[in-house]
Design brief:
This protein has 123 residues and is α+β, with helices and mostly antiparallel strands. It has a single domain, classed as Beta Polymerase, domain 2 (2-Layer Sandwich), CATH 3.30.460.10. 37% of the residues lie in helices and 24% in strands. It contains 5 helices and 6 strands, in the order E-E-H-E-H-E-H-E-H-H-E. The protein has helices at 16-33, 45-48, 70-73, 93-102, 105-113; strands at residues 3-4, 11-12, 37-43, 57-63, 86-92, 115-119. A 4-stranded mixed β-sheet has the order 5-4-3-6, sandwiched between helices.
């Protein structure tokens, strides 16, 4: 989160390098105890290299299966432990394959931008 110096009202946002270093550490911790996780990536401004002040992290997780509604899946992931706000999308392998097969704009964006931190198999 932005940090305010005690002597100034100027806010500083963590550097992109610091955010990505923290993300890698966070991901390693999550991977260690998440059975069924087959892929984890980030995309968006941090992946493109144009993140700036107030940029959030856009994250993608692919799991073997999850019967819960998509909006409920990310709740169990402690994204609040990351240094900036994060939006996490969690897809099952089947949903991911359907998304890729549809070849819509979002799928094309993910295909070109995603930077994979974990890819256990080709989902």
């Amino acid at each position: 989160m932005p940090v305010t110096s005690s002597a100034s009202s100027i806010k500083r946002w963590p550097s992109a390098e610091a955010v990505l270093d923290s993300l890698e550490e966070w991901c390693a911790t999550e991977v260690a105890h998440r059975e069924g996780l087959v892929g984890f990536a980030y995309f968006g401004s941090y992946a493109r290299g144009d993140a700036g002040f107030a940029s959030d992290l856009d994250l993608l997780a692919i799991v073997e299966a999850d019967d819960r509604p998509p909006m409920e899946r990310a709740r169990e992931w402690p994204t609040e432990n990351l240094p900036v706000p994060a939006d996490l999308l969690v897809y099952s392998v089947d949903e991911w394959r359907r998304l890729e097969a549809e070849s819509g704009r979002f799928a094309r964006t993910l295909n070109t931008e995603a930077r994979w931190l974990l890819r256990r198999e080709d989902p």
